[in-house]
Amino acid sequence: MISLDDYIIQNFDNSTEDEAVFDIIKNISSGIIQVSEILLGNNNKNIFGDQGAKNIHGEDVQKLDIIATDIFVKELKKSESIKIIGCEELDELQFTDNNSNLSYTVMMDPLDGSSNIDVSISIGSIFGIWKHIPGDINSILLPGNKIELAIYSIYGPNTVLVFGYKSVVCMFILDHFNSKFVLYKDKIKLPDKPKYYSVNESNYSTWDKNIQEYINNIKSNLSLRYVGSLIADFHRNLLKGGVFLYPEDTIKNKSKLRLMYEANPLAYINKLCGGLSVSNGINTLDIIPENIHQSVPLIIGNASLIEQL
Ligand code: AHG
Ligand code: MN
Ligand code: MN
Predict the structure, then answer these.
(1) Second label for 190, Cα 20 to 30 Å away, from 74, 134, 211, 239?
(2) What does the pLDDT look like over 100-144, one tens digit per residue?
(3) Domain range for residue 47?
(4) Same-domain check for residues 158 and 205
């Protein structure tokens, strides 16, 4: 069995970058273990229900959204190289006091799938990490193709950590007994033959005609799976092959998923696994963000399926 620490020691070099990334992964993984323990009930926190506030997207904030935000902000600040933290639940960017020469920005969705918390369906956390040039404000709103590291977790039947760095995506499962992540799958690639399409089909009437036709066509060869937690839908399709869609609502002119801390980290991992993603007809990873909370349509999965669009 190869632990997360062993894996990194074996595969990373002694460069300052690799050491900083190692440290970031370690601190995020510690946050993931804490959230996972809270979900298992190994803590007296009341984790269910509304916090009684709305976030910048106008959505009801759940207690667990805040608990996870606090945990990850605290853990991320321990990484000397993290200078800036952007978060779904925080309107403004947080600047840390860290002063190492190397500087990174993290954009995070600390708790994805909020509507599934109190019904015991898989939820997760998503992180995108970019290098930042100190003093250069333009180096915060960077496209996904400039991501250095992407990580996500899933809190489900087991707790999973997946990260993509350099050219490799690997997956670890938490050994709760020893509070350690153990390697489950290395060098993940999307299967050649996709199985699933995942979309909230109740929104059909709000989609562009091209999307409607696309769904009508692909459904004859694929089976439908939709969890309603982006991260769980994405992860299943990554391992089994398929396409996930959250198209624009063309009636309200609105998209739901957030570019910097939902779409981009997953688009980056998906690309390393041989997949493709598009938003508004262009590669999701090429979009230059206008603000940290920007929303985009997202169609992501096997390249062969996306190319049919
Ligand atoms: P979050 O809980 O971080 O706000 O994200 C919820 C998102 C995403 O996880 C999921 O794919 C989508 O909302 C589900 O939306 P619908 O309920 O509209 O299908
Ligand atoms: Mn989310
Ligand atoms: Mn969230």
Answers:
(1) 211
(2) 889 999 999 999 999 999 899 999 999 999 999 887 878 899 999
(3) 4-185
(4) no
Residues 27 and 100 in one domain: yes
Q: Is residue 190 part of a domain?
A: no
Q: Are the C-beta atoms of residues 110 and 72 closer than 8 Å to each other?
A: yes
The number of angstroms, rounded, from the C-alpha of 123 to the middle of its chain's C-alpha atoms is 11
By CB neighbour count within 10 A (0-12 exposed, 13-18 middle, 19+ buried), where does 12 fall?
A: middle
Q: Are 96 and 23 part of one and the same domain?
A: yes
- Quickly tell me which residue has 């309200």 as its tokens: 252
Ligand 1 atom nearest to CA at 113: 2
Does residue 114's CB lie within 6 angstroms of at least one atom of ligand 1? Answer: yes
pTM of the shown model:
0.97
Task: Tell which one of 112, 155, 235, 299 to mutate to probe ligand 1, the residue whose CB is within 8 A of the most ligand atoms.
Answer: 112
Cα 113 to ligand 2 centroid, rounded to whole Å: 6
CATH of the domain at 242: 3.40.190.80
How many independent structural domains does the chain possess? 2
Is any ligand 1 atom within 6 A of the Cβ of residue 200? Answer: yes
